[in-house]
Write a structure and sequence with these properties.
Layout lengths: L1 H6 L11 H8 L2 H14 L42
């Protein structure tokens, strides 16, 4: 929040927006192609070994394992406010 305040975004949240830059630079064919390629490579598909999917309503628990398994904030992004 301090950085946003220092940048003046509370006074003018659109201070650094530039429609011409968006049209001329950000939404070029090259950038859209790269964004599409990144999106394709970041999609995670689940392999349905032993016909486990969809998960049966009879399933009582599922183990979530890994460094973020018990972290409710980080997987959602650093923009999320932490709940108390």
């Amino acid at each position: 929040m301090r950085i946003k305040f220092q940048l003046g975004l509370f006074v003018d949240p659109y201070k650094y927006c530039n429609e011409n830059r968006e049209k001329d630079f950000l939404y070029t064919t090259e950038h859209l192609k790269i964004a599409r390629d990144v999106a394709k490579k970041s999609i995670v598909l689940l392999k349905n070994d032993k016909n486990l999917l969809p998960i049966s309503k009879a399933t009582k628990s599922i183990a979530v394992i890994g460094p973020l398994a018990d972290n409710k904030d980080t997987p959602l992004g650093n923009w999320r406010a932490e709940a108390v």
